[in-house]
Amino acid sequence: MLEEIVGDIRDEYDSDEEESLVEIKPGVYRVNASMKLDDLNDRLELHLESEEYDSLGGLVIGLLDHLPEEDEKVEEDGLQMTVEHVDKNRNHYFNASHERRTSGFRRIKFP
């Protein structure tokens, strides 16, 4: 009954969650917005940081300064992200491509 009110609740009977980071082709990933920045940094050798947010979705909200919409794009530390799916003002998945750079940070907000 509680799941009908608040949504899916994971327990020991549920199968493993969908992978947070899936490479869909070389250098292009499908990333769950709830993925922790530390985990994403470790997996893709990035240096994404935020004092306010600990997830990729939170970082994107901070970079854009608003709730993202589908197909909106943002780049941080060589990771180019496109919002793939938004549901009830929550961004769930990003398509992300990673370009390896050797120095500096670059932040671009696409119109």
Structural class: alpha+beta
Tell me, rounded to a whole number, the average pLDDT: 78
Shape: globular
Please provide the ordered H/E string of secondary-structure elements.
HEEHHEEEE
CATH top-level class: Alpha Beta
> What Rg, in angstroms, do the CA atoms define?
15 Å
What would CATH call the architecture?
2-Layer Sandwich
Count of extended strands: 6
Walkthrough of the structure:
- The protein has a six-stranded antiparallel β-sheet, with helices on one face.
- The chain has a single domain (18-109), classed as Uridine Diphospho-n-acetylenolpyruvylglucosamine Reductase, domain 3 (2-Layer Sandwich), CATH 3.30.465.
- Mean pLDDT is 78; it is low at 1-8, 12-16 and 101-105.
- The longest helix has 9 residues, at 56-64.
- It is built from three helices and six strands, in the order αββααββββ.
- It is 20% helix and 32% strand.
- The chain has 111 residues and is α+β, with helices and mostly antiparallel strands.
- One of its GO terms (molecular function) is flavin adenine dinucleotide binding.
- This is Transporter-associated domain-containing protein.
- Residues 22-100 form the Transporter-associated domain.
- Pfam families: CorC_HlyC.
- It comes from Candidatus Caccovicinus merdipullorum.
